[in-house]
Amino acid sequence: MRLLLVLDNQEVRELMSFQLSSRFALEVQELPNFDDAASFLEGEDNAGLSQITELLIAPYNGKANELTEYLQSRVKPLPTIFYYEGEVPPADVLKGLLTLGLLEKQQIVEGSARLLEDYLSKNGEYADPNDFCPIHTSLLMRTTPLKSDIYIKLSKNKFVKLFHSGAEFDQSDLERYYKVKKIEFMYLKRSETAEFMGKFSKELDLLLSKEEITIQEAAETMMLTQEMIQELVHRVGFSAEVQELARKNVALTIKAIGTSPKLLTIISQIHAGANYIAQHSSLLAYVGCCLAKEMSWGSDSTFSKLVIAAYMHDISLTNPKLAKINSLAELNQLKDQFTEQEVKSYHLHPLKSADVVKSFQEIPADVDIIVSHHHERPNGTGFPRGLQHNYIAPLAAVFIVAHDLSQAILNKRESFNLASFIVEAKQNYTLGNFKKVVSALEKIKFE
Ligand SMILES: [Fe+2]
Ligand SMILES: [Fe+2]
């Protein structure tokens, strides 16, 4: 971890550099001139060194200077200790900067050591990433104020508290980080997610209480909420609170799909800010209902089975890239991109996801079967069980074809062509129920 120390007095600088590096295992980079600080840090950014300086001690030289402007503009805030000579700077001038403290120059040696010790020991530095749950900043913004601490991630194992519990921050503070600094995710300790979940659940209620909701209005919430649910399942388990959010997201999706879903409507609504699993699952929910409708299976209960299955089918995967893979042969070709654990878990993910479904209270029957069959193929070449078509449940057959269709849409986006998809599907799906599904596919209107 590198600290940049900007101080003109050589003797004090060398003393501090020695003390801080030995006491905190930091690499200290010294800089005598304040004027060089911004260009030094910008140089790191430009050299693609991904901002290796993670802490800064620098003089506070007024509001309008290059360093302050640079710090304001950084994507990842740089935790900084400022010192000053003479008059104390007014309290509001450091707003928007991640300031660890403001010291009088004479206090800099002891003061910095104290502030760094505080920061490094109490702020979750070197924490286990599994202890932190990522929440999309745009969702977090809807639940302010929160009593919990809010963290940002500095690197894989390093998190720093951005807002302390009870600290006064409002939606505009979060908006500044989201829109100006482009911090997409903030983190809550997994032990402190209950308050957020409760408040977010009420936000979903508000949407659900609307008489009507279009897919355009719901798409972003549906996808980002799904992404968050997936993270929560891995961090806190499929608890009653997480199930409640999942149930409401399903209700929101069903409401937005309506009674006559149109394939073309969803394509322009894929939310680019959501990860692949969330995009793919929401799209699959929609596409599955389009297809069921054409099979004259457009009942509420079928729609709800398909939507729940879509949201749950890949819930046990941890790496979104794995959801792009459709067969064990494909996995084998790409296995170098994944850890051994990820490769292993992929083989059984339909069954593991089905297990999560079984713990989901008050949902319709058979959803776990659809989920456990989602990578089976009619000719027995699928996994994990290699079932023949006559052992694959009829609604699972719809789901499997819809799964292919949603993959094709996501891969091709605007250039997706339904007619060529159908030509290929006719070759792949010639057996039993699958043949019927492909006939229904031909009835889908793509306009
Ligand atoms: Fe899958
Ligand atoms: Fe999938």
Summarize this structure as a short list of keywords or feature phrases.
447 residues, alpha/beta, five-stranded parallel β-sheet, single chain, two-stranded antiparallel sheet, Hypothetical protein af1432
Fold and architecture overview:
With 447 residues, this protein is α/β, with parallel strands linked by helices. The chain has 3 domains: 2-122, 3-Layer(aba) Sandwich (Rossmann fold); 126-192, no CATH class; 193-443, Hypothetical protein af1432 (Orthogonal Bundle), CATH 1.10.3210. The chain has helices at 10-24, 37-46, 66-73, 108-122, 137-140, 171-180, 194-208, 215-236, 240-257, 263-267, 276-294, 300-312, 328-334, 340-358, 367-372, 394-412, 418-428, 432-443; strands spanning 2-6, 27-31, 53-59, 80-84, 99-104, 132-136, 150-155, 158-163, 185-189. Helix 2 (37-46) packs parallel to helix 3 (66-73). The chain is elongated. The mean pLDDT is 89. The protein binds fe (ii) ion (2 copies). One fe (ii) ion binds at residues 280, 313-314, 323, 403.
Provide a quick synopsis of the model:
The protein has 3 domains: 2-122, Response regulator (Rossmann fold); 126-192, no CATH class; 193-443, Hypothetical protein af1432 (Orthogonal Bundle). Helices cover 51% and strands 11% of the residues.
